[in-house]
User: Fold this.
Amino acid sequence: MPTISIKKKDLESLIGISFPLNDLEHHLQLVKGELKGYEAGTDELKIELSDSNRPDLWCCEGIARQIKGKLTGAWRDYEFFYSNGCDRAGEIIVSEEMNKIRPYAGGFIATGITVDEEMLVQMIQTQEKISEIFGSKRRRISIGIYNLAKINFPVHYKAVGPEDIRFIPLGFDEKMSLQEILEKHPKGQIYGEILKGMPKYPILVDSKDSVLSFPPIINSREVGEVKVGDSELFIEVTGLDIRLVLLVLNILAVNLHDRGAKIDMVSVEYPYDTEFGRSISIPYEFAEHASLSISDTERVIGESLKVEEITSLLDSYGHWVRMEGDMIHVTPPPYRDDIMHPVDLCEDIAISRGYGNFQAVMPAQMTVGALSEIEKFSDRIRGYMVGAGFQEIISNILTSKEDNLYKMGIEMERVIEVDNIMSQSYSVLRHWILPSLLRVESASSESFYPHRIFESGEVAVYDESGNLSSSTIVKCATLISHHTANFSEVHSILETLMYYLQMDYRLVPGDHPSFIDGRMGWIQTGENVIGLIGEIHPGVLTAWEIHAPCSAFEIDIDKVLSLYQN
Amino acid sequence: MIQEDLNSMVESLHPLEINILFVFEAGKAVDDNLLIKEASIEQSQKDMAIGWLLAKGILSVTGETVARSVVLTEAGERYFDLKIPELRIFQSIKANPDYSMSDVKGRDDIEPAEISSAVGLLKEKGIIKVAAGGRLEMGDGSLISGFEDIQRLISIVREKREISLTDLSENEQSVIEGLHRKRGKSRGIFRVNEKTDRTYALTDLGTNIHTAVLQKGRPVEEISQLTPQMLKDGSWEGKSFRKYNIGLPPPRITPGRKHPYKEFLDNVKYKFVAMGFEEMRGGLVENEFWNMDALYMPQFHPARDIHDVYYVKEPASSKEIEEPFKSRVSDAHYSGGDTGSRGWKYHFDIEKAKRLMLRSQGTAVSARTLAGNPKIPGKYFSIARCFRYEQVDATHAQDFFQIEGIVLGDDINFRTLLGLLELFALEIAKAKEIEFLPAYFPFTEPSVELHVKHPKLGWMELGGAGIFRPEVTIPLGVNVPVIAWGLGLDRMAMVALDIHDIRDLFSGDLDMIRTKRVQWR
Assistant:
């Protein structure tokens, strides 16, 4: 989740209190924030915010708002959410065809401030963090900020063909068509994917046909560039989900309001139905009321709290609270849309109270501990192998075809392959253990001989019949390497292991490309093949750059266990 | 040299060394043969003891002679019984006028390689001739005496087993030298062994030591190795045992042993069992449904991207999503279903839920357990191998273990969650100082991060936990509160193993694996 840079002084001036860094670090618990660093020279704080459902906290204003409420109890009245609190100052008209392209748009107007350097930096950071992370790289949400003086309302949100309109985008000096922007503009190259396959593209133009922006790609240089000193702004958000569009606009509005701006309403007219009707005045208070009972609350937090205490904890955390008998009715603030279930409010109560103020108690109910059967069986085998003088190995499971197949002399075998490969070295799940042991041999020719090693671990094998087309099983491989390592030596180990496992087995001569012809066998119990044994083929040793003979066996522990249990 | 040093040198002499010194007299040189005879010890013991005495500067080498002796090779032994091939072929020709080259080739007592050289030699000397059709005729038969000389020499050497070259006549010596040249070393009849004989004398230091040793007299017979025979016949009684220098380093062995990281993980596993947790297991390959959807992570969640997890190539999707979980979970995402939640409010894509991937979090195992009729009350843990789409470096391995689990019960709430974490801190990290911080996980509410003061690492995040959202538990059929917890133990493992690169936990370097020890403190 996002890490943001803010100025400590800016934060303190928004809260109205200054405090030492330690106290600040403590207060950051209220916003699930972690202080990552502080640069005294530039006064810059780096803060990581962990709650991906609270984009209102991903900015200096939001952090200040949450801390200030708790410390001072003073909450701003965001009157502009109610039509009598502000003037209707503009209109956005959405055209019918947007419903299939990028259905939702909205905006508001902020006046009465002067944009300074720090404010501009913070505005851009908030815009980026929200549209990149919360907006899934602008797909679900993109944000545009404009100099109001250059816009003539109403603004039209409509669809145009790739070559129908030309304008000068930010960062360029010449007019370009939308198609050219997608191809040549760096932002077009990054975000063009969002519009891929669409016959027409979204555009925002004012009543005099001057282009505001080409959402979600780029603003126009003429209208869509905010500079230090500007005092009247138009803020617009487009996206795929009306709730997200309104939420983000609400967050941006309270942010500007917290910095002293007057917020004026913009109404959006849709030719189609939305969750909130065809005509929406923005900022729009759409928070859903939530209710929880005091007993439910107590059951979740494990503490019985007085009604007044619950009320005050929720209130100082930003909620409007009304008590009615055993029920607590809550209206979350308009910049939050993350209360999906009463448990979300329980957490707010706990955070507002401070986790440190809860007394930990042990769960009292008795349970019996146990390892799984396969783990116990694997541990038993590990015990025998260690007793037989073998060093245990543990290896990565995500490896390569090269290691699993080709170096083993196998041309083709079905393995579990990764689709989005980052590196060929990590592109398949191992389906047997022996390559993992040869990897050790390959890296250890300088290590004191003899080498007697084993690994018991998970592998994934292709399994056509299974729902997931694979099964995860435990296999154990054992390998001996020294100047005269041979079949009979490793056979003795298998014999000993099987003796203690009380498993009758026999070796059936076979062919396997990893082993020397005539010195390889399938390990069988009854008709079940449970493993294989042999002297490793010199071609395989050469492929692994191993300089000493190796003999090895591998058994399928899951299969042995199932036979064992029968 | 001061007397004390001299005494300590004398004291530390090995019985073999003392035996050897008794053969010496001041100013007189002694050679190897004499040493073996007089000191009545084995060649190898003599070599060892002489080596020590030379290294200590007690003896010096005064002369060196090389003695050469002759023995029969394997072929020579064979020719003693069969006679050399030349004589055998000659006899046959003499006895049979029609004897031909093909008859020679048909013999099974002469190897093909021997035939060409033997026939060639006989021909070269003019003893036989090759006539038309490969028939072999007699030449000057008297010249065969040269080969009879060789046969005789074989008998002489055979009798003595080994004979000094100087004990042979000049003629015989030249026969041996000649054969050595002609036949080469590999198929020769005789082998000439060279042995270096040295003579030694006491050095000045040695003379002093020698005097002291003579004064001390021969040591009483000491037992070096107690044998079963001694125990049987009681011959050890009344004898003393040679004292060992027990300060010497012992020889190296390579024992059977658990892998140190597995040893660490085993300890963690036993801890959980001891705390009443039952182990649960899952597959390395999962579908998105069990890895994420069942955990109420919305399908548009930022961590569900192609750049966050590994997807499976073929087949790309699982065959089905099990009911009733498919319907219940998709309802929970869309409208909350019957969980009391309002849901994420989006249309759930079943096809996306079917997408196969490499398990990216151990919580997937917990989700499966919840759906599989878990015990109530119940405590579960798993040590699950997980995969993330991350660049492999010193802090990221291509696969890693997540230690995760759940606790189900009527008495589960935020305070018992904290109680459980306190227990983990003490039992797993031996940490008494702890702090709980608010945290965010998509599947728990309330959520908490556990920070502990580790004895070596200082304050660190030990894990995250929370109470599963009802949107997770109710669709999976669980109607009691459930704690979900996860611990990050890799840093602790790295401290315990003194490793600084996470990839070394899975190192292929056998030397490193054999020598790493687990620091339990």
The first helix of chain A runs from residue 8 to 15. Chain A has four domains: 3-72, 82-282, 290-354, 373-565. Chain A is about 30% helix and 25% strand.
